[in-house]
Specification:
- The protein is of the alpha/beta class.
- A six-stranded mixed sheet has the order 7-8-9-3-10-11, with helices on both faces.
- The longest helix is centred in the middle third of the chain and has 17 residues.
- The termini are far apart.
């Protein structure tokens, strides 16, 4: 496969949402687009997939996959979704109810001109790889949620896309099935040569599946980091909550931080820090004692536990 780096630039308004997004996804990397409801995740995915009409996104729009320009508002270029070579795994599977599983998976190769026998051979191979070859002759209505999602993944990969989009692929699954499908996805994402964009609001999916996390809040990217970087240095309160930590803002001066919304000041080791800062406090760093502890703690406060 040739270099299929994804470059996406979206700026403008869609309804009440003001979007300003720059994305770059190299081949072989899984990027998770995280954010609360209404942050612009679905709009971003739809713009890349080509399923949002150009006039629905007012402003600048530029999407390039490898050497192919898929969208360019300045030149009025907009390649139809079916010609973009983009594969999407949806939350609700969206399998064709009237087709058996093997023909669902064979749909991609058939739509690209492959004969029935050749398309079914490709489909059989993908069903085998995803561990659901025994379901080949069933209808979608006969599948469990986890089985249907595996078939949906097989159908997407069988179409040989250059870019893989995953739109909340585990959201409709129960907890046990979600863990199973997550393991399957992790294996097959690693085998996919092109860029992969996972849209989710679930930090577990993002941390376990992605190489890089891009956090979207109110249409703007607030942090772009590896999972480890994001855990250790969250940029906003929302990111801190995702990482399971606490983020405070305040003013540093000579080894002390006066917090903006807290009655106490923090004592810190870095005496050179000065001015506006953020302070990260991880839950394991907090301990409770009946009596005032002795030792190396820099911050000891009296409090009542209710």
């Amino acid at each position: 496969m040739s270099d299929s780096t994804l470059i996406a630039r979206l700026a403008g308004g869609r309804g009440a949402l003001d979007i300003d997004i720059d994305l770059a996804l190299p081949p072989g990397e899984t990027v998770a687009l995280l954010g609360p409801n209404g942050a612009g995740k679905s709009t971003t995915l739809a713009a890349i997939a080509g399923t949002v009409r150009p006039d629905e996104l007012i402003g600048e729009r530029y999407v390039r996959l490898g050497d192919r320009v898929l969208d360019d508002s300045a030149r009025r270029v907009s390649v139809p979704a079916e010609l973009r070579r983009v594969g999407t795994v949806f939350q609700q599977h969206l399998l064709f109810d009237h087709l058996r599983v093997i023909d669902n998976v064979a749909f991609g190769p058939r739509s690209k001109g492959a004969g029935r026998r050749a398309a079914r051979a490709v489909a059989s191979d993908w069903l085998e790889q995803l561990g659901v070859s025994d379901l080949a002759e069933r209808r979608p209505s006969e599948l469990s949620g986890g089985e249907a999602q595996r078939v949906a993944i097989a159908r997407t990969l069988a179409s040989e896309p250059e870019l893989l989009l995953l739109d909340e692929p585990m959201a409709a699954l129960d907890v046990t099935t979600r863990a199973e499908v997550r393991r399957v996805l992790r294996t097959h994402l690693a085998r996919f040569d092109g860029p992969r964009l996972l849209v989710t609001h679930d930090p577990t999916d993002a941390f376990l599946l992605a190489d890089r996390l891009v956090v979207l809040e109110q249409g703007h990217i607030t942090q772009d980091a590896t999972p480890i970087e994001l855990r250790h240095s969250p940029a906003t309160a929302y990111v801190a909550a995702l990482a399971g930590t606490n983020l405070f803002t305040g003013t540093a001066d000579d080894g002390s931080v006066l917090l903006d919304d807290h009655p106490h000041a923090f004592t810190i080791a870095d005496t050179s820090a000065s001015g506006s800062v953020t302070v990260t406090m991880h839950p394991p760093a907090v301990s409770l004692h009946v009596e005032r502890p002795t030792g190396s703690q820099r911050n000891v406060w009296s409090a009542r536990v209710e």
